[in-house]
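Checklist before submission:
- one chain only
- standard amino acids only
- sequence pasted in full

Submission:
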Amino acid sequence: MIGPFIISLTNSGVRNLFFLKESPSEKLLEDYQLRFPKKDVGNMDYALGMLREASLLLREIENYFQSFDLSQTRFLIMLVLSNANDKKRLRAKDIVEQMDISKPIVSNTLKSMEAAGLVKITPDPNDGRSKIVQLKAKGSKLLEKVLPGYYDVVDAFYVEEAEA
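Returned file contents:
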């Protein structure tokens, strides 16, 4: 299951989810409630808080990935492939469908991953327009090396949040 790994990705490749350092003040939220009585500002405050936390966690994860010359997109592609089947391969189209990233970003990332020796890309014998992407041993080894620290970053983030 890949779900727990996916924090957020956008089609534009934006790195941060949320840019406000502080949520709106209670007074501002009360003013919004008066101006927009049909809207639940409590939900908005909660959502803004979640977005802020996710943004902070994403920054920690990205900093960790940099030590491996790895992007979140590369990491997620390796995860998708490692969970695909016993041969660790999928059509490029299927990778795009499993990720919340545009086809051009996935395509460019796959090309760079192939150049780095992390994946192998071959024509699909059943569909000449399609490509098969397979996780190579180097990609599998990198993923295995990165995963424990990835979990450590996530665990440390939540320990720090619980203590705050």
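Reviewer check: Helices lie at 26-35, 41-66, 72-82, 92-98, 103-115, 137-163.
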